[in-house]
User: Fold this.
Amino acid sequence: MLHALGLILLGLAAARWPDAGWRRPGLLMLCGTAVFSGTLYVLALSGMGWLGAVTPVGGVALIAAWIWAGWIALART
Assistant:
């Protein structure tokens, strides 16, 4: 749920400051959420065990998106 709020905030920031570079961390967060949650859903519903190895890629993308957004926010101050 926090990533959904982060996506909303990144979307609002991108609309307010379009030249600041808020879109890329937002896209990374969106892709990270899709990969992380999507692989967990498919793993739970189908039992394909190899998807457990893909799930951390989405988690790393989410962490990187938060760090990137924080970097942009600190650079703007």
Q: What stands out?
A: The chain has one domain: 2-76. The mean pLDDT is 92.
